[in-house]
Predict the structure of FLYWCH-type domain-containing protein.
Amino acid sequence: MNSIYSEKQRDLFVIDQYKFRFHKFLKNNIERCCCCKKTCKSYIHLNSDNNDVH
């Protein structure tokens, strides 16, 4: 997983050509990030080290 900056200087995470942006915090300080494409409904969970959480 790579991270890049958006045009508005926000973190974006790139996984297999898909970009994810921060959506909200879940319990235990886990971040939920959703896909940047409006028609895509996928999301990922990241812990404080920006590692994928299952």
